[in-house]
Write a structure and sequence with these properties.
alpha+beta, Neurotransmitter-gated ion-channel ligand-binding domain-containing protein, transmembrane, transmembrane helix, transmembrane signaling receptor activity, extracellular ligand-gated monoatomic ion channel activity
Amino acid sequence: MSDESSRCDTLLPPPSSYFKNNCPIQNPFIGLYVEFDHIEQINLEQNQFRVKINFSIAWADPQITFAHLKKWKESILNNLISDIWQPILSFDSASFGDNMNMMNNEGAVFNYATISSEEGVSSVSNSEEVLLTSGSNITIFKRTIYVFSITCSYDFLYFPFDIQECDIPLKLANFGICQPKWNLGDNFIYVNATPKLNTISMYEISDIRFDYDKSVSEVKIITLKLLIRRASQTYLLTTFLPCSSLCILGQMTLTHFSIDNFSDRITVSVSLLIVIASLFSQVSSNLPSSDEFKFVDIFFFYAMLKLCIVYVIHAIIEKNVKKVTNNSVCDIVKGYRKKNSIDMNNIWSSNPQKDCSEETLHKVKLINDIGHYILLIIDVIALSLSLYFIITNNNYIEHNFKNFNITK
């Protein structure tokens, strides 16, 4: 009999009837532990993000026997591990190469451990006294650390005030008639809610939650869920506020420029339009490619359309001013045709010069004021609708996210 100190916790060779490609029982229960170490990269162009995940799957195998295991003491398992059945876990939203590495145990950090829920039974094996424990009382853990490339369907409609919800389905592979299923009992599914570290400064990562189909009795897919919130402060300072300031300057050409100063009014409006178009071109070159409109696109289109309307208002005002001032009565009264002028007081009892100037001034001021107030009303409506849809959409996403399961 060997010395106690020389004994090693070990897995005994499986029986000759053991087949590692079949489940030890028909529908084995699998436990899960998941922890996000950190998110390394978010790739908007490829709809992906890279995340380092530390996860463990746990199961029991009643067909095998262990020796020298103490009750509730974790032991590292190294020998003969390739000779026993192991669940295969696939990440449906990960790349094909990542799943192949998981299946072949390549490119990742792996280790195995066991915990016994019962004391071993004294027996003799190979002329030695040993404590044997049935595999039905042993929980086997396979721990993995790997950096996954996860595909996420980004929705850029409210960019850059968007919140992206990403799903990571964890699916158990079938083995013929053997169909492993997740153990939904207490303490068998553990998802660490908070990532250890977020290395992406432009984004905020939510707690990690999980969900599964509650309408089926045998759950084979557990979906991890997280929210990626974009930090929009930079866009406010570099895009929205400058563009809004230019729009305000364009609006001021209707209120702070003399009505008869068409040249200055139109020059400022066109210059502002060119600046906003240039800013939009610069911003759009750095936006993620997408076949759908983004909020920032709509914002710039609205800003350029507004300045075009301001330009049209100035043109209408100038046209009306010229139309009235070119009228022969006004020209005669103003002395533009002094050679042919006559005493108008003999024809009209009222003062035609006063009527002409007041009519012109009243009409162009009315056009100017109507245009100014209509644009203000449209601005208020556009701002209100934008805030409503952005806040409503983000609140809806966050509200639904809170309904998912969380490990406390």
